[in-house]
Here is the input.
Amino acid sequence: MARLRSATPVGVPPRDTSPDASIFRRWLATSAGDVALASDLATGANSTTPIDHSGAPLGCQLRMPLAAQHIGRIVGNVSGADGNYYILAVPVFVRAGEAGRYRLTVDVTPFGADSVFLEVRNTSWALTLNPTPGQTSEDSTIALTSEGLVQVGVSWAFDLAVGLQYVLVKRLMRSNDVGATLFGWALDHQRGSAGTNNGILVDGTTAQGSPYGALASYAPANVLEFYDEEVVTDGPLSAWVTSRLNRKISALWEYVTGGTVPGNVARQISNTWDGNRTTWSAEALLEFPITSIAVGASADIASPKTPSLTQLSGWIRYPDKHATAASVFSGTILQMPGFRTSPSDLRVEVLMEAPNNDTLVDWRFDAIVSGLAAATEVAPTQIGGSRWWRAQITGVPFTTAATNQLDVRIRHSTSGALTKLVQMTGVCVYFDP
Amino acid sequence: MSLSRISSSEPLADSEVRSLAPAVSRRLATSLAGRGRYLLELLRGDTAGFADDGATPLNPQGQRGIDRSGPPWGDAHQHPIWVTEYANGTDVLGEVPTATLTTVGQIVGITARFFVRPFYVSPLAPYSRAYFRGLGTRLTAGTAGATVRVYGPDGLAGSFTSATLSTTGTAQFGTGAYAAELRPGWNERLIQFELTSLSGGATGMDIGPCSLNQVVRRTH
Here is the structure.
């Protein structure tokens, strides 16, 4: 038998549904075929490329926020001389189909007439955004904490490409600017306005008494297929077809929207909430940014010393010896989505600098979620001949749809005193299947 | 608005499609044919390839299609929306806790500023709350207790939710604290940590990494 499934949406002209119109085989078959196509697009079944939210026709973009971090660190210049410093240098990850306008905001103490510049560099360390001064807000007091601190927000609206890239914020730090503070930063899509209620036609919140039965869930075991022979010209209008088609559409509706068909017998989405759609093995694996984290500035260290003696009051992160045991340099606690864990698509990108232009090939980086095995450690690679290096840790084990305590670690392949200087500046956590 | 193909969000009751039920063309065709097109629009993020205006309302982002921001715009994914970072590596320098509390009754507050992606605002919407997660580590041997409070948009004058922690090592704050009534767009919350007890020689508590996370719970 030939399975009914439209190759592309066919649809039914409005005239076919005018009052008293004949019930044609063509719209009934088309309806079954279009629903089968929708089902395949949602689930990836039958070798269909599923929607991955990379833009039409593969689904609306997700436009997840990329970062929002409280730092609250003194970054004052204690070197005794004016200098330009990268107070922020982080990797960021942009999903496929979501290249475009983004907004970066950095909250700092006022800086007089000194500009703050943004640079964006690609994975070859080529500039994709030339140094650009930010737009500074008026001074404001941080009201909620009653700390009496004065801050300004410096912001940029700029373009980001798809994939990994590096966002760097450079500030001229004057030698007498010893009390400068970096309060935090955030990176998100540049949105015109956030919507709220858009005239929703579907009640996605209630589940009440049922006027009809529904499929138990939208799963391969009970999703019904339709065949050409069931909807023949001059054939009977069979309840066998109409009732099954109706139920399939209702179940698919709940699967796609995450809501309940009004009046349905019960929520049918328990196994799909939070994106935990393990029922369908061919469903799209999504690229998904979790967050980017700044861990320190690019502030020169000529030799190992305590953070308070580095040039930016200790807003710097580096190992103080060549230790062969892994040591945590970035710790976070994060809620992870319900994505697959075997294999894991979770990655961690580390951006670091070799302040003395040392080779960093003997350093090792890994990531570990508390209670799970560590990811395979990797050695960093130099970025485009610069003094900047990167390490990409792949396949990080994580617990799906749960809180994960994620630590990123560093060690050296041989023990000894610190001779290969490295300072880590940023970490990006993301899913990239 | 013009439509070249039927679109509908109306479900049918079983009674309308069972044997011997009246075959009402408009009802059957509208629902059975129209809902397929409607779903195709939601999935593809366009007018399903038809040269007309489309029939689905725009999602909270102002775009067409489901964007996984919660029902009815797809099931919402869990993810953090605001973080602090802290590590206590033995051979790494430059790490500073989110807060350090050393005196019972001491309170430290930090401001969380974060962006919430647009979502359909309703009381039970999964994006309407952000749940706090955090780690606390007691200083020296003994037991330390702390409370975290997440204040509403009115700050100290408004309501708050809280969670407590008592630990002889490193432990995680529970699920009790959350930032309620989040709105699409920029949000600002005060998060306060208070040291509530010290015993057995403990001298304080370091507050480690923290985060606010969305869609931790299925329903609120």
